Structure formats: C-alpha cells, structure tokens
Amino acid sequence: MKNLFNFAVSKDARTVVYEHSTASTPTQWFKATLEGNRLANEVKITDLNPAFKNKAGAKTEVVRWKGALGEEIDGILYYPKDYEPGKQYPLLTAPHGGPAGADLDSWEESWAYAHQLLSQRGTSILKPNYHGSSNYGLKFVESICCGHYYDYPVEDIEKGVDFLVAKGLVDPDKVGTRYGPEAKVEELGSGAPLLKEAGSFAGAGKNDEPLVFYLGSNVAEWVMGKDGGAKKMGGSADRPADPRAQSWSAAMEYTGFRVVRGEAKAKS
Questions:
Q1: What's the pTM value of the predicted model, to 2 decimals?
Q2: I need a labelling partner for 253 at 20 to 30 A (CA). Which of 43, 118, 155, 175 fits?
Q3: Is the domain of 64 the same as that of 183?
Q4: CA-to-CA distance for 147 and 142, rounded, in angstroms?
Q5: Is 69 helix (H, G, I), strand (E, B) or coil?
C-alpha cells in the first residue's frame, strides 16, 4: 500500500499502525503486521468522517512537468467537480509556504486550502512543489540560494501553468494565484502573461482607475493598472485597504485570493 503517513511500531517490532490517505481520499488508520520489509494482514481500524462516503470529492492527480534548470517538477492537481474532458476550466495555483515545505499526495483540507469547496465551484487547483521544496533532496532545497529565491520557483509555477494549458485542461484567461511569499506573488502578478483575473470581485473605482478589491482573509490586496504593472494596496481581513473598497466580503471561492489582474471600469 502506498501513501502511508505517521506510523508507529510496537515494542516487539511486529505490528505497525499507520495513517493512509490520498489528496482525494480522506484519512483513515490501519494496523498491519511486519513481515520482513513488507506489510501483511492490513486491517482498517477507524471509520473517520463516515458522511464523506456520500459526498463527491475532487478527482486528483500527481502531475509532472519540466521546470527551471530543465528539472522535473511535480505537483498535485485537483480537478473541478463534474470535470468534462476537452473542456477548459479556471485554475488557481496554491504554492505552499516555507519554501522548504512540500505538498504530498495526502488528504489536506483546511481554512487555508479548501480544495473541495473550490472544486465544487468549477475551479482546478495546482499545488506545485517548486525548487526549494523539501522531500526532493538537499540539492533541490538549496538550489534557490545565492540570488535564485524567486527566480526558479516562479519559473516552475509558470511552466506548470503552461503545461496544463498545453494539455487543454486550463483556460489561459482564467488563471490566478494564492498565498506563497509575497515577493513571489508580485513576480507572478506583474511578470506572468498568463495570469489574469480569476473571477468577478466587488469593488469601486473612479473612471479609468483600477479597481480595489477587498477579499477577506488576512492577506494583502493587489491591483493591476492599465500599464500592466501590479501594486500592493495593503489591508487585512478586518478593514479595507482603501476608502474606495466598498465591499467587505467576497464570494467564498475567492476569499483569501489576491487579484492578479483587474480591468478599470467606469462607475455607472
């Protein structure tokens, strides 16, 4: 069995208890006996969250592409609910923090990454393990040193988006990003031609001025002007960053997301 996490071994080294999950299968605990270097007589010993059995979860897949330095990068792709082959969908990239962290093929649902809710609203999610991530060896972690802290990770993420667009899975006009180091988001917002507004947001602005959006969740706000440059407006979950920001909430699927491109609209 693959995808084993957080195991414990008995004192006589004959029995092991472990957690099993995938990105699309919720966590359960199992017990097995050790026979040499393999597990035998596996038995599920928990029935956690039984109501999940009656719910449709997001299909997930480990995807791989060529990133910075021509090296292989992988990530977890969450498909939108009722995915139809041949149809393009919006994409949200959700880079992990650290940068020495990693997104595994394991169950992870939280206020920060509500994959199932986003999937139910017709959005794909890509969680890339960019250069600097853990679990790929010390050389990979340290590859971003010496002036490459943003260069390689951003290139990895952009090429991951390109890969999904080339496969016909993603609408190139509906790509956004979430979380990660702020400088990385700045790079993505101003430098990646594919990244555009990920959805419709409430906001206000004077004629020919970029809109300012309040998106909730303790994150900075971003706006992109006519010149194509992105700038941070500040702000947090408890107050808007700018007096022109009139809305104090966003649709659930966009809460916590920074705007990567917003068109200026004249007030009616």
A1: 0.68
A2: 155
A3: yes
A4: 11
A5: helix
What is the C-alpha to C-alpha distance for residues 31 and 91, in angstroms, rounded to an integer?
A: 38
Question: Identity (one letter) of the amino acid at 180?
Answer: G
Could you read off the pLDDT of 68-119 as tens digits, one per residue? 999 999 999 999 999 999 999 989 898 888 889 999 999 998 877 788 888 9
Identify which of 220, 74, 249 has the alpha carbon closest to the alpha carbon of residue 160.
Answer: 74
Do 178 and 214 fall within a single domain?
A: no
Same domain for 150 and 101, yes or no, is yes
If one counts the domains in the chain, the total is 3
Q: Do 100 and 223 reside in the same domain of the chain?
A: no
Residue type present at position 248:
W
Domain that holds residue 169: 60-191
Q: Contact, 177 vs 160, CB < 8 A?
A: no
Same domain, 110 and 141: yes
| Averaged pLDDT of the chain | 74
Q: Which of 61, 76, 193 is nearest to 127 (CA)?
A: 76
